[in-house]
């Protein structure tokens, strides 16, 4: 079940893992790993005023099933942050890696470290300060302390604690530290880059989901278009298939290739009114109710004054991933237990939220959860100054978190930190055409960002081209290059359209200011 939840919520992106450039193994091999590991259980971590912790168990897991031996450390950071750290006993490459979580978290996703663990990293994961469902009912939100841990504290103090264990076990610091996460984990990534810039040398943020703007505004808005008050679907699967087919028929060829992928869905000009029919849908049409819902989903959340409440709505081409069940659970869980200073009455539902009055009530805790507080701009100057490297990636067909969120974020950083050429020296955004939220979609959506990040941090080679793959039953069916935005990949016009070698990055002649004017946009 946990594996299914991880797949749903993109704890880490679906990746293709080539051979990672290895650091030299530790020069001071551990003479007795079993004893050294057991000693970690006696390590006094309780006196750190920032990250008081205790180790509840530490023991060596012997090599098996293709995995090397490691020291498995489990513990708790005050008050309730459960963590696991795995320390290779003979194959440590000198690096530390930490993964992010997904949804409401509540579990420790150590399996999301599998690729880094296989390459010899010391790795860690944590539950963001509570035990609970990834998808619904965050009852722990009654505790302000647990809310703050879910915001950004747990990610930071886990790094502090894990690095102390690394130092105690190996007798020295890790040479370099890396963080990767998608969805909630992508939000964690941007938070550590902004608020704890010294924690990681390289940060990889996938499809970042900012809790307040996503958990309340976007999720609520979308759910209320997709579901009626009685819980029935406005847009059943057949309607979404029809909608997607018509969108692709009109827009698939705009990038010069008819391949089922919109390279830039913003270029698609589509009026869903062309599908309207006056009666119940028969053949190829949508009812007036369905047409209205689709228009509001593409446009995105607005209040009664027409003010935009989020940077964007859903992307054209993302229709096959529109679903309501998971979003409804996340939306209701957030507004009932996490959104406001005081939780609402027990019978509160998603239909009680008022987009005119209640958005302002989200702001206090949004400043705690979100990497960028309402009316503020991202400030990554400290991360840049310490030499940190940032990769952001986002599915261009992500219907859960609009990629325009990250296009706006990227534009805000460019505006304040020197423009594209200067920012590209330390931060790059990769949009993944056709990919849903963190994974999925009928497009190349398997890629590795960790190896390019290691190369960037440790050798200064910036990632200009990352190959994404699409596979069926383990066989690669097509590849496509991912290039740093605003460069876009374009087909050369010759050779196999499904081979990345026949695609090249094209930089726009003029760089547009892509900052979005919405209700929480920076005030200055």
Please give the count of helices: 14
Tally of DSSP β-strands: 13
Give the strand order, joined by hyphens, for the main sheet.
1-2-3-5-4-6-7-8-9
Any idea what the radius of gyration is? 23 Å
Describe this structure in words.
This protein is α/β, with parallel strands linked by helices. It folds into two domains: about 1-210 and about 370-505, Rossmann fold; about 215-370, no CATH class. Helix content is about 30%, strand content about 15%. The chain has 14 helices and 13 strands. It has helices at about 1-10, 35-40, 115-120, 145-170, 185-195, 210-225, 235-250, 290-300, 325-335, 365-370, 380-385, 405-415, 420-425, 450-460, and strands at about 55-60, 70-75, 80-90, 95-100, 120-125, 175-180, 200-205, 390-395, 425-430, 465-470, 475-480, 490, 505. The strands form three sheets. A nine-stranded mixed β-sheet has the order 1-2-3-5-4-6-7-8-9, sandwiched between helices. Strands 10-11 form a two-stranded antiparallel sheet. β6, α5 (about 185-195) and β7 (about 200-205) form a beta-alpha-beta unit. Residues about 1-20 have low confidence and may be disordered.
Tell me the layout of helices and strands.
Elements: H1 2-9, H2 33-40, E1 53-61, E2 70-77, E3 81-88, E4 95-99, H3 114-118, E5 122-126, H4 144-170, E6 176-182, H5 184-195, E7 202-206, H6 211-226, H7 237-251, H8 288-299, H9 325-337, H10 363-369, H11 381-385, E8 389-395, H12 404-416, H13 420-423, E9 427-432, H14 450-459, E10 466-472, E11 475-482, E12 488-491, E13 503-506
Parallel strand pairs: 4-5, 4-6, 6-7, 7-8, 8-9
Antiparallel strand pairs: 1-2, 2-3, 3-5, 10-11, 12-13
